[in-house]
Amino acid sequence: MPRVPHDFGYYSLNADHSVTKHDDLMRWAMEFEHSNRRVKLTILAPGIFVSTVFLGLDHSFSDTGPPILFESMSFTDYGEQGCDRYATWDEAVAGHEAMVAELRSTLKARGVKVENGAT
Q1: How far apart are alpha carbons 72 and 44 in whole angstroms?
Q2: Most buried among 24, 30, 59, 80, using CB within 10 Å?
Q3: In the predicted model, what is the mean pLDDT of residues 51-70?
């Protein structure tokens, strides 16, 4: 039996941070284009920050488990330094804060002056 390709699904983020799955690609694309997908942004120093966003497409690459719809990435002047993905808004916020704490600790250990970070 041929393997069915993974359904990436199209999702929008609601005002209450829940998500809605869409079957219509064009409707989803029009909504997604104008939506606010930022969950959090924390700037730790010039050129060093953590960004967490709603992806809109399922990044689980699996046919089991919940859709993975959020992503946190840390960036430095040298490019992307870390990436974690999550299923829910609450997981994304917690993951963002954990990534910020880890990066802040690493930077302080290296003697980099770290800002409080606007989020």
Answers
A1: 15
A2: 59
A3: 89
CA angle, corner 60, sides to 5 and 70, nearest 5? Answer: 135
Amino acid at 93: V
Domain ranges of the chain: 37-109
The residue type at 92: A
Q: Which tokens go with 113?
A: 């002056």
CB burial of residue 119 (10 Å; 0-12, 13-18, 19+): middle
CA distance 100 to 87: 19
In tens, the pLDDT along 92-112 reads: 999 999 999 999 998 888 888
Backbone φ and ψ of 37, nearest 5°: -100, -5
